[in-house]
């Protein structure tokens, strides 16, 4: 219940944070960043994480500033799930404000709205941040699946400068990411073009509410066919992944239930192989794989309905 | 207008709603030290060394206690259980152990420091060396001859066998037209009261050992502390204060609490210990954990004639004082439920295993009995191609037959099981299964019912300090007419302050607001057995009834008839007492129904409806009764669908946090429709029956029967709880019958 | 923010506004907000029910938004505003219980609907329901049940808690002390 002892400092800027990293390193101490703390503090309370220094980013204004670029949103890493859901992720003069002239993010990306409605609980959503969601590397997390499907890009800063990284390839495994120990995710960029036909389906664990399986599907239609589709899966494998074989099957396919079902049947394949499956007393690997297929069918059907609505066509008659 | 039957909102609520509750952890007298318990991480091991030297030097540490330290002070061990069959194994339980650990979580050492954080830090440097031994956790495995043995001086893990027989079951089965048999498990589950267990102990200014304890039994705890520490009971003061739920698991005095109390005495400082939630999953008693192999026999007319078989019950590594009673006094004798069967032959086997000790948990033997029997009755109906409702009706004890003595020797005083079932069906059928099918396309719909009888109001036959059996109550009426009622039961959320005030105000003819009710403090409440097993209204209420009658008698003896408040003014006060005496138990009953929708693609069960019909005799406060039904139903749903305490093959707990142990949330449950049938009890003057646990007893079998109904097209006969999605989906996938069309 | 950066420290001076009053203490950096409230400020109405951020008994409002105070450091709350269960109803002169009409509408609805039994989850539930009604003044039953996904009750089966939330919603949108800043 009680974290091990540590020293705490609140950074006023990114430079402050880098200085604090350096000081900790010089003293041979492990330093970790804290944003919302909804992933890190529970681990520290169980003493599964025992950093000696905690650097609080909450006051770093730069990490809260987002902007609308016309084809996508750049979201400050400190934006909470609650703020995302309520369209309040752009700060002007230090206070959160709705984005002028642009629809709310959850309206432009329905899958995001789906995920935010079922992610954790309202209290945790009030503190947990989009940056934290990505940096933590949790194998069973909802938001990374949506971000992966939308080809999200991360803006990362360190003493050495700034870099951009695609989320796809950034997540490696259980709590393992590409983020170096002295790097800070500053922004997450998501496109909204073509995101109208998107959906997220989740099968939660009844105790933790984490996804035993979760699938995000994005479909774009052109001339009556599926022009392209993105499918991302979470919860069943050591890290969330893009189901590219399923995506390839959908590309150019007619938007019919059997095409969606055929793609869903391949959703546990990646790089030519079956993905490595997680299994425990809550759900076995094979069952999670089965859930992924069922959720993929459902997410694809809903994504398709939404894509049609976005282009004015009618909804699918059958539901798989 | 009478207050009996009024849905009065609770007087307990204002302090609780405004953050002014008085739970154990809310108290921290000057100088309080904080304790942390070092527990065995292994399920079965010999301790070869305990080194607390580093811990003793850790920052803020006041003391570290080991088994040797407590032995020096003559503390412990805890005696085992009461009421066991002759020849039963009954090992004593050490408060701290330095010898052998028998369950992962068994207390080994106690660290006491200035802050809880310091105690937790220091506990990390207590070094205990263990020699791992093979562990056994499943009850049938533990009962096997070749199982690793827990208690060294014994030849077996089987603590006792008790056979209940009546009539000639063998003959009944031999001539039966139909028989049905099934192995069924009532799985190990955890109570998860929202308030973790704890204790605060200190020596008060008057020199008495004063204890704030998360307890359902203040007087029982006092007696036990006195005995274990070699004190006179009047040198010990126990206060329950506000207790955040108990469900049976806060009735026992635990070894960890005894260690903390002993430390407080040894150090001459207040010491407080509060369990962490993850800790509670190994430290606080679990419920259920039985495997039943039972059969029913019926004649050609569908009359159930006999039941036979065996129930193996795990008790974990050690008995608790009241653990075996759930099996011997409840589960076994209640297997006949509402039915008239005349031949019975069931053996009850108590077994030790390397798991947390088993204690009473909401229902304590009755949910298990109802589950086993009601599943068998449904299976028998299927076997006979009969209607499960009709089969029950045909076999119910008829309303005219009460008082009825069952084949296991229990006397049900009143009841009308046909009326209960009729009312259930009337309410269930307001929504047809066809309408549900249309509302939930693509889902498998199922409807299930279960009926039950359950005992309540028990008065244990152990005499109190005055040598008599019974819960006591006192009524004190001041010259100003204000009334204080003190009683020996010990409510912890049930609303006793409100209900007992209604009762006393009604009996005495005084305003409700002039009555104050106290309990849970050994200084201000007279002796009683506490609150558990749905006993408080029947036992405590009866004691209050008699105390009020005595007050009315005192008022009548003043020169002219006058209200009791006036008489009190005249007499300078009236003070009386009453006792529950030693009445037989009450027998409540009920009929529950569930509608479920199963998603054949995922196996997910959605509970659509719960309809509950309860007969708990006279209702004092229907609002409180309904609240008990809702809460008990939620726990019963949890057992049926999501809850399970599990261990790996080495006895390591796998479900030791709320991340893994799935209790129901608000979105899991539908609205529960609650109705009543009333057959007043004849064994107490109030006509009340216990009902606090009925919801757990009725809903679990009704829900499982409903899911089995939904899966019947697949030829699935039985699935053990919890009915997780994977289990159901796997059963559908593996079924031999071709899939039924969904929707 | 100008000035010299304060170096990382194991003990910190924490200053925040709690229930409208400025409060301060020097605490170890690892002090959770719930323990700060309970042990340092003696506001014991906020409860600890678990250690994995599941149960919600510790829910308070931080800058007007419901959070789990067991998963916030006191240090993180430094400079911010906290409302606990004790900050809702009007205090009485003699420190006793407020009359029904002095209760916050959600507290009042809980009492009227018998939405509490042992009371341990109740402060957290009240704070969660207040948040729900601030965000959705007219929720459906389904919305209420899902809004309680961060709160566990073991006594009531949730039914009367849901009824209380709907009752409070129907009775108006007043939330007593107001919701403060929102994200």
* CATH topology name of the largest domain in chain A: Uridine Diphospho-n-acetylenolpyruvylglucosamine Reductase, domain 3
Radius of gyration of chain A: 20 Å
Mean pLDDT of chain C: 90
Structural class of chain C: alpha+beta
Strand order of the largest sheet of chain A: 4-5-12-8-9
Rounded to an integer in angstroms, the radius of gyration calculated over CA atoms of chain C is 17 Å
Low-confidence segments of chain A, given as residue ranges, are 91-95, 314-320
Low-confidence stretches of chain C: 173-183
Oligomerization status of the protein chains: heterotrimer
Topology:
The complex is a heterotrimer of chains A (320), B (743) and C (183).
Chain A: E1 7-10, H1 14-26, E2 31-34, H2 40-45, E3 53-56, E4 67-68, E5 72-76, H3 81-85, E6 90-92, E7 95-97, H4 105-108, H5 110-118, H6 122-127, H7 130-135, H8 143-149, E8 153-158, E9 161-166, E10 171-173, E11 176-177, E12 184-191, E13 198-204, E14 211-222, E15 225-234, E16 241-242, H9 244-250, H10 257-264, E17 269-270, E18 273-274, H11 285-311
Parallel strand pairs in A: 1-3, 2-3
Antiparallel strand pairs in A: 4-5, 5-12, 6-7, 8-9, 8-12, 10-11, 13-14, 14-15, 15-16, 17-18
Helix pairs in contact in A: 9-10, 10-11
Chain B: H1 13-17, E1 33-39, E2 45-51, H2 53-57, E3 61-65, H3 67-72, E4 100-101, E5 107-113, H4 116-123, E6 127-132, H5 139-143, E7 158-166, H6 169-174, E8 178-186, E9 198-203, E10 209-213, H7 218-229, E11 236-239, H8 255-267, E12 271-274, H9 277-283, E13 290-298, E14 304-314, H10 323-334, E15 343-351, H11 366-384, H12 388-395, E16 404-405, E17 411-412, H13 417-428, H14 433-439, E18 444-456, E19 472-477, E20 483-487, H15 496-508, E21 515-518, H16 536-556, H17 564-571, E22 574-579, E23 586-598, E24 605-615, H18 622-641, E25 672-676, H19 694-710, H20 725-734
Parallel strand pairs in B: 1-12, 10-11, 14-15, 20-21, 24-25
Antiparallel strand pairs in B: 1-5, 2-4, 2-6, 3-5, 7-15, 8-13, 9-10, 9-12, 13-14, 16-17, 18-23, 19-20, 19-22, 23-24
Chain C: E1 11-18, E2 21-28, H1 33-40, E3 59-62, E4 65-68, H2 74-77, E5 81-83, H3 105-112, H4 122-135, H5 141-147, H6 159-170
Parallel strand pairs in C: 1-5
Antiparallel strand pairs in C: 1-2, 3-4, 3-5
């Amino acid at each position: 219940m009680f974290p091990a002892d540590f020293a705490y400092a609140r950074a006023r800027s990114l430079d402050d944070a880098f200085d604090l990293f350096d000081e900790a390193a010089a003293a041979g101490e492990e330093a970790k960043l804290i944003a919302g703390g909804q992933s890190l503090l529970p681990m520290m309370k169980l003493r599964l994480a025992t950093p000696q220094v905690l650097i609080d980013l909450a006051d770093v204004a730069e990490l809260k500033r987002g902007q609308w670029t016309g084809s996508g949103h750049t979201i400050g890493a400190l934006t909470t799930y609650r703020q995302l859901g309520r369209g309040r992720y752009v700060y002007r003069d230090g206070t959160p404000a709705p984005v002028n002239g642009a629809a709310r993010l959850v309206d432009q990306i329905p899958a995001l709205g789906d995920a935010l409605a079922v992610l954790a609980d309202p209290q945790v959503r009030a503190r947990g941040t989009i940056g934290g969601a990505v940096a933590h590397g949790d194998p069973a997390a909802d938001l990374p699946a949506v971000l992966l499907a939308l080809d999200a890009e991360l803006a990362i800063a360190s003493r050495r400068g700034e870099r951009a990284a695609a989320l796809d390839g950034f997540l490696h495994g259980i709590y393992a990411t590409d983020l170096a120990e002295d790097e800070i995710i500053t922004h997450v960029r998501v496109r909204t073009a073509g995101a109208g036909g998107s959906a997220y389906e989740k099968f939660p664990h009844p105790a933790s509410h984490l996804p035993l399986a979760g699938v995000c599907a994005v479909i774009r239609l052109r001339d009556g066919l599926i022009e392209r589709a993105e499918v991302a899966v979470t919860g069943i494998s050591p890290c969330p992944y893009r189901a590219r074989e399923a995506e390839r099957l959908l590309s150019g396919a007619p938007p019919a239930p059997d095409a969606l079902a055929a793609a869903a049947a391949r959703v546990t394949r990646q790089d030519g192989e079956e993905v490595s499956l997680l299994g425990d007393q809550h759900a076995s690997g094979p069952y999670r794989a089965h859930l992924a297929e069922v959720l993929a069918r459902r997410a694809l059907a809903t994504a398709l309905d939404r894509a049609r609505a976005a282009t004015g066509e009618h909804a699918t008659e059958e539901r798989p | 207008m009478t207050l009996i039957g009024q849905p009065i909102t609770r007087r307990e609520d204002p302090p609780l709603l405004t953050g002014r509750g008085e739970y154990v952890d809310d108290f921290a007298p000057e100088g309080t030290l904080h304790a942390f318990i070092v527990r065995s991480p292994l399920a079965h091991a010999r301790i070869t060394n305990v080194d607390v030297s580093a811990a003793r030097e850790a920052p803020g540490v006041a003391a570290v206690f080991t088994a040797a330290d407590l032995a020096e002070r003559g503390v412990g061990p805890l005696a085992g259980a009461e009421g066991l069959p002759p020849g039963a194994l009954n090992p004593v339980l050490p408060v701290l152990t330095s010898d052998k650990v028998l369950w992962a979580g068994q207390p080994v050492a106690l660290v006491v420091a200035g802050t809880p954080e310091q105690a937790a830090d220091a506990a990390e440097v207590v070094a205990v060396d263990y020699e791992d031994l093979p562990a056994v956790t499943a009850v049938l495995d533990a009962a096997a001859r070749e199982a690793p043995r827990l208690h060294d001086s014994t030849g077996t893990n089987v603590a006792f066998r008790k056979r209940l027989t009546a009539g000639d079951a063998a003959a009944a089965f031999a001539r039966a037209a139909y028989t049905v048999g099934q192995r069924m498990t009532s799985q190990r589950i955890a109570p998860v009261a929202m308030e973790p267990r704890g204790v605060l102990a200190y020596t008060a200014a008057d020199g008495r050992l004063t204890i704030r304890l998360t307890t359902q039994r203040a007087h029982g705890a006092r007696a036990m502390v006195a005995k274990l520490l070699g004190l006179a009971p009047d040198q010990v003061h126990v206060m329950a204060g506000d207790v955040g739920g108990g469900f049976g698991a806060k009735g026992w005095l635990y070894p960890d609490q005894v260690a903390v109390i002993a430390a407080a005495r040894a150090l001459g400082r207040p010491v407080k210990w509060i369990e962490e939630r993850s800790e509670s999953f190994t430290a606080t008693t679990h419920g259920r954990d039985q495997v039943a192999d039972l059969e029913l026999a019926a004649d050609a007319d569908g009359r159930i004639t006999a039941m036979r078989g065996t129930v193996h019950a795990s008790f974990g590594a050690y008995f608790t004082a009241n653990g075996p009673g759930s099996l011997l006094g409840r589960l076994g004798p209640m297997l006949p439920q509402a039915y008239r069967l005349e031949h019975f032959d069931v053996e009850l086997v108590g077994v030790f295993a390397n798991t947390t000790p088993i204690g009473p948990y909401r229902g304590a033997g009755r949910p298990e009995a109802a589950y086993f029997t009601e599943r068998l009755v449904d299976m028998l109906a299927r076997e006979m191609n009969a209607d499960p409702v009709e089969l029950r009706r045909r076999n119910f004890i008829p309303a005219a037959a009460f008082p009825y003595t069952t084949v296991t020797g229990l006397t049900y005083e009143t009841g009308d099981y046909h009326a209960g079932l009729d009312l259930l069906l009337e309410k269930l059928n307001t929504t047809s299964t066809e309408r549900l099918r249309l509302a939930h396309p693509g889902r498998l719909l199922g409807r299930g019912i279960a009926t039950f009888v359950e005992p309540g109001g028990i008065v244990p036959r152990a005499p109190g300090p005055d040598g008599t059996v019974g819960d006591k109550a006192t009524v004190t009426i001041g010259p100003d007419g204000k009334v204080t009622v003190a009683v020996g039961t010990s409510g912890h959320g049930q609303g006793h302050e409100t209900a007992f005030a209604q009762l006393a105000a009604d009996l005495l003819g005084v305003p409700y607001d002039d009555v104050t009710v106290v309990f849970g403090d050994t200084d201000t409440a007279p002796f009683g057995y506490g609150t558990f097993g749905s006993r408080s209204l029947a036992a405590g209420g009866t004691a209050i009834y008699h105390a009020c009658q005595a007050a009315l008698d005192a008022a009548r003896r003043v020169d002219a008839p006058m209200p009791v408040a006036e008489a009190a003014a005249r007499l300078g006060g009236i003070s009386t007492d009453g006792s529950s005496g030693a009445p037989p138990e009450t027998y409540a009953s009920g009929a529950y129904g569930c509608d479920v929708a199963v998603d054949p693609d995922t196996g997910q069960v959605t509970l659509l409806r719960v309809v509950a019909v309860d007969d708990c005799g006279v209702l004092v406060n229907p609002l409180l009764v309904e609240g008990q039904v809702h809460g008990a139903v939620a726990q019963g749903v949890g057992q049926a669908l999501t809850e399970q305490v599990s261990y790996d093959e080495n006895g390591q707990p796998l479900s030791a946090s709320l991340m893994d142990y799935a209790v129901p949330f608000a979105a899991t449950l539908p609205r529960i429709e609650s109705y009543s049938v009333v057959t007043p009890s004849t064994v107490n003057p109030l006509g009340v029956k216990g009902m606090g646990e009925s919801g757990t007893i009725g809903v679990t079998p009704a829900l499982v029967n409903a899911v089995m109904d939904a899966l019947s097209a697949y030829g699935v006969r039985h699935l053990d709880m919890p009915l997780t999605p994977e289990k159901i989906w796997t059963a559908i996938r593996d079924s031999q019958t071709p899939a039924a069309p969904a929707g | 923010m100008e000035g010299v950066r304060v170096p990382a420290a194991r003990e910190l001076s924490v200053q925040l506004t709690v229930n409208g009053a400025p409060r301060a203490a020097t605490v170890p950096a690892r002090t959770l907000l719930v323990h700060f409230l309970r042990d340092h400020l003696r506001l014991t109405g906020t409860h600890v029910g678990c250690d994995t951020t599941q149960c919600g008994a510790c829910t308070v409002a931080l800058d007007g938004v419901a959070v789990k105070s067991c998963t916030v450091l006191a240090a993180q709350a430094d400079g911010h505003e906290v409302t606990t269960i004790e900050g809702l109803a009007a205090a009485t002169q003699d420190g006793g219980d407020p009359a029904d009409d002095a209760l916050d509408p959600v507290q009042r609805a809980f009492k009227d609907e018998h939405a509490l039994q042992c009371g341990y989850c109740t402060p957290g539930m009240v704070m969660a329901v207040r948040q729900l009604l601030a965000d959705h003044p007219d929720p459906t039953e389904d919305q209420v049940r899902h809004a309680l996904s961060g709160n566990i009750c073991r006594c009531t089966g949730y039914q009367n808690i849901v009824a209380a939330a709907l009752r409070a919603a129907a009775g108006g949108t007043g939330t007593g002390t107001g919701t403060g800043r929102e994200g």
